[in-house]
Amino acid sequence: MDSIGQRIRKARLNLNLNQREFAKKANISEANLSRYENEIREPKSAVISRLAEALEVSADYLLGISDDMNYDKYDLSKKSTMDMENLLKDIESKLSTDGLMFCGKPASKESVDTVIKAIKIGINMAIEDEKLRKDL
Predict the structure, then answer these.
(1) Per-residue model confidence as pLDDT tens digits over 38-69
(2) Domain region containing 58
(3) What residues contact 84, with CB distance under 8 A and at least 6 apart?
């Protein structure tokens, strides 16, 4: 498994950026970037988040939890309506088959539908909140 430093370097090179360009993009010093890539120092959690965003990968990738560099795969705001509907259908199927319970009794179809609607509303609200934060 690659170290966090190796993953930072691999993702940076994937964007065709040198250390100076990437350090500026990530708002960190070139010296710190070099220390991270050469495994002299590990970035703190707040820096990992900033690095992941600038590298267009997930923090899970940098931390070695996932080998998938595809950042957009996890970005719900970039999912099509069809993708979102498929995601919600998958959740509904899991809730129905895995036995969602309320007060010790299996949830009715109507209750599962209500939970799905709440999830959909929550996702849309979170996407809007993130868009507003990025505009600030």
Answers:
(1) 999 999 988 999 999 899 898 888 999 888 77
(2) 4-73
(3) 76, 120, 123
